[in-house]
Amino acid sequence: MCRSIRTLRAPVTPEVGDEDIRAAALQYVRKVSGFRAPAAHNRLVFEQAVEAVAEATRQLLGGLEVRGGGAPRRGTTVP
Q1: So what's the pLDDT on residue 3?
Q2: Cα angle at 40 between 35 and 44, to 5 degrees?
Q3: Structural domain tally of the chain?
Q4: Residue 24 domain-assigned (yes or no)
Q5: How far is 37 from 12, CA to CA, in rounded Å?
Q6: Average pLDDT over residues 64-70
Q7: Is 57 within 8 Å of 21 (Cβ atoms)?
Q8: Which residues span the domain enclosing 45?
Q9: Is residue 73 part of a domain?
């Protein structure tokens, strides 16, 4: 979807901080909304969306169970 959003799960990215999660959420909301920065009248709903996506990302990363050998190699796809 968006090449600037990087994979946040281990072992691809061993340490993920809240800033990383928020940055990915912000990129996602920007992409979906089509706005780089919201107008004043949309700021609240924009920020709420960023927080909702960040929280969903935290839950996802906290619940994932990674099995197997390591990160996929560049240029390969994972089914």
Answers
A1: 64
A2: 80
A3: 1
A4: yes
A5: 29
A6: 74
A7: yes
A8: 18-63
A9: no
Give dist(CA 20, CA 76) in Å, integer.
Answer: 24
Burial of 9 (0-12, 13-18, 19+ CB in 10 A): middle
> Rounded distance, CA 61 to CA 65, Å?
9
User: Dihedral sign, CA of 41, 46, 52, 54?
Assistant: negative
The string of pLDDT tens digits covering residues 27-58 is 999 999 999 999 999 999 999 999 999 999 99
Task: Please tell me the distance from the alpha carbon of residue 27 to that of residue 24, in angstroms, as a whole number.
Answer: 5
Which pTM value belongs to this model?
0.74
At 69, is the pLDDT very low, low, confident or very high (cuts 50, 70, 90)? low
Residue 54 lies in a domain: yes
**3 found inside a domain:** no
CA dist 28 and 41 (Å) reads 20
For the CA atoms of 52, 19, 15, 79, the dihedral, rounded to the nearest 10 degrees, stands at 40
Question: Cα(35)–Cα(37) distance, rounded to whole angstroms?
Answer: 5
